[in-house]
Each structure stands twice: as structure tokens, then as C-alpha cells.
Write a structure and sequence with these properties.
heterodimer, A: four-stranded antiparallel β-sheet, B: five-stranded mixed β-sheet, four-stranded antiparallel β-sheet
Amino acid sequence: GAVVSQHPSWVICKSGTSVKIECRSLDFQATTMFWYRQFPKQSLMLMATSNEGSKATYEQGVEKDKFLINHASLTLSTLTVTSAHPEDSSFYICSASLLGGTGNSPLHFGNGTRLTVT
Amino acid sequence: DAKTTQPPSMDCAEGRAANLPCNHSTISGNEYVYWYRQIHSQGPQYIIHGLKNNETNEMASLIITEDRKSSTLILPHATLRDTAVYYCIVRVIQGAQKLVFGQGTRLTINP
């Protein structure tokens, strides 16, 4: 159980276009989803916390107008990279927290989306 | 900022126990110790977590010192598939529940 699915697993887009990444919790409801970004040979960096039905909370230094997050249901959150540039090329990973979960409930991660902007 | 310190890399022979240390000297009473691992180009995989007591599951054992300032993840019989980056993370019990990743330990299992 506790499967998180990301789509697409990889995407190539042209500079200036927008890309949407989906994160779904397949067998559980997730009040909160987290979006991370990972550059080669680096650790995961938290970008934002997405709460169902409310605005996302962004970490310092992450542009909310560039990385649009929508969490319209308890099983789906989306990250849209707007006006993508080559420096946005990265591995984007989402994770989900079980509805009603606490710090004692593990976060479950998707398998990531590799974005390449040409 | 991550609140843990781990060695950047470790090697272990296949079939032997892999012991991965983690220092979290500033851990608070309301924080759990979590371990995840990341195999190349995949999302992190949950391994185990604990608060005060030692924990064991089908993947690993977690030994937390009595003062909770450090812990050790033990993979009892390492296989080549255990080669990954292992992250030790402290996480608050309540609130945002987010996981803040440090640099982790790159564990290489050698045949």
C-alpha cells in the first residue's frame, strides 16, 4: 500500500514553454503533499508544501509564480513549471502524507520526473 | 537546514552487516529519527523510523542511543541491491511534517 505515482516520468520541453507534473496518491488520501527538486549529485531540496484546498507554502528562494502548485483533491497535486528555462532542468519528486497522519507516519515518495529544458 | 551529520560515503562487503551512523545532537524531544534511501534516479524509499526505542523491520534495524543524539541504521546482510544513498532525517511529530534532507551517505556494497 501507500503508493505515490508521478507522471510523466520524464519530459523534454523547449525553453519558454510550461510543463505540468502530476502527483497522485493511489491507495490513500493525502492532506499534504510535498514537492522536491534534485540536481545531479545533490540532495533533495524541498520546494513547497501543498495542502488540499488551500494555497501552497513555498520554501525560501522558490518562486511561487514560476512553480505553480495546485492540490485540488485529496489524491492529486500538480506542479507546473512555467516559462521553463534550461536551469530548471532537474529531477522533481513529490511525496504525500497520509490523511490524519502525524510525524509518526512515513512520507511516501513518487519515482520522480526528470525534466530537461532545451 | 538538515539537523543530521552523516559520513559522505561507506563501503561494505556483500553478505556482511552494513552499519550506517548518524549524528543528531540537537534533536528535540518531539522529533523522530527517519531513514530513507535513494537508488539512482528513483524517489526515496522509506526504511524505518523511531523515537526513543530501537526498532526492527524486514529491511533494517535502527539503534538509537539513550541520549538520542545519534543513531545507527543496520542492514543485517547487505546485498548489491542495497547500494544507494542513505538519508538520516529528524522530523517533528506535529506541524508541517516535512522531511528536510541532508547530504546522506553513499553506501556501496562490494561483491
